[in-house]
């Protein structure tokens, strides 16, 4: 098992993630998922704690960060200089969700995992990182209170659109993209950002719990 003396740890992480995504529908996001993946790869099971010391919690974080980086690679290849910031934000959120299309059930299972109260801080942190990447890519240079306001509001747009997408069975998820357009146009009215941020500050964690509950069979 794993008799090669050297491994590129990041490459091995990617391979484990890919294998795990093929098993998660049956095993869920639970620590045995990593060991099952290593067994299928004929790898030393000790890689589980060496690469992901906190188990699937670390694996989910690695998946989210990988999706963020893939999203940016795709967006940076697009000709977007003519787009308004609102249009860039819409494109970025859509791109991020499209990357999940081949692993929709894994994304749904991730919501089940994040329904645990102790995992909500991680869920919010990962969402905040994704939102931050999107705003930076779109050209946001704010450093005052608008920095936090924009991210808070886009976090709400992203989470509600992800929820809609997980339930959407329309062709090519067209209903989701229509929903996203409406949410962007309604929420991201830049002159009204402070008022809107104040209105949604209190319910981000509550919304996550509601989303997860609604996704359960």
TrEMBL record:
UniProt cross-references to Pfam families, sorted A to Z: COQ9 (PF08511)
This protein's pathway: Cofactor biosynthesis; ubiquinone biosynthesis
Domain COQ9 C-terminal: residue ranges: 121-189
Keywords: Lipid-binding, Transit peptide, Ubiquinone biosynthesis
InterPro entries associated with the record: COQ9_C (IPR013718), Ubiq_biosynth_COQ9 (IPR012762)
Entry superkingdom: Bacteria
Signal peptide: none
NCBIfam families in alphabetical order: diverge_rpsU
Function of the protein: Membrane-associated protein that warps the membrane surface to access and bind aromatic isoprenes with high specificity, including ubiquinone (CoQ) isoprene intermediates and presents them directly to COQ7, therefore facilitating the COQ7-mediated hydroxylase step. Participates in the biosynthesis of coenzyme Q, also named ubiquinone, an essential lipid-soluble electron transporter for aerobic cellular respiration.
PANTHER family attached to this UniProt entry: UBIQUINONE BIOSYNTHESIS PROTEIN COQ9, MITOCHONDRIAL (PTHR21427:SF19)
Assigned protein family: Belongs to the COQ9 family.
Protein name: COQ9 family protein
